Amino acid sequence: MLTLGVDLAAADKRTAMAAVEWLPDRAIVRDLVLDVSDAHIVEASERAEKVGLDCPLGWPEPFVAAVQAHRIGHVSVADADGAQWRRRLAYRLTDEVVRNETGIIPLSVAADRIAHAAFRVAGLLAMLAAAGHDVDRCGGGRVVEVYPAAALCRWGLAYRGYKGRGQQDVRHADLVTALCRAAPWLELGAFDRLCRRSHDAFDSVIAALNARAVAVGRAAEPDDEQRTVARIEGWIALPTGPLSSLIVGPEE
Fold first, then answer.
1. Which residues, other chains included, contact 6 with Cβ-Cβ below 8 Å and sequence gap of 6+?
2. What's the short name of a Pfam family annotated to this entry (predicted)?
């Protein structure tokens, strides 16, 4: 099995992609690249069983409805103070599930800079669909939405403070070491240095591991009620087992 992980930025620059091959007793990072184009992602997806995209795959339904209503000048604020109404505009159902399960508050695709990457992913999903891939936003097809910080949290690893410069670079390198200790079956090989140098590269590896969790049934799926919304808004696939469960999957 081959899984692909993509840490998607708004442009090719800062977009990283990792390809991980899964063998019965180990996982090998076969490729890890930076500054990745949409065309490169689509091409690489042809060879992967599961593709983990670190980017919201949709927008909150109330937000979309409010924008449509505002376009014709008839927005109705349901709550007296507006606070709860604005929260429903800002966060998707899956964001609230992640918040409840991990305590991590995902970035708002409706009200934060991550929306720029979401604009890109909308076009990328269209390209993947045109190439014949199932892009079910619930994660049932080739593509699944992942959130590296939440995955790291679920796997008992540090998930805050490793992105950036200065002292954070040290924390990032320490996190790579911690991952290798927690998953001794993971072989970074020639890409070890790149993982330690670039948190974008590291996140793409985590995205590929998260994609594996989905592929072997070790990630949370939406229930029937949640699925109706998740098909539109997207669904973050939180891992449900330890890192070791990723290597205990169906025979390759």
1. 15, 16, 17, 36, 41, 51, 52, 53, 54, 55, 204, 207
2. DUF429
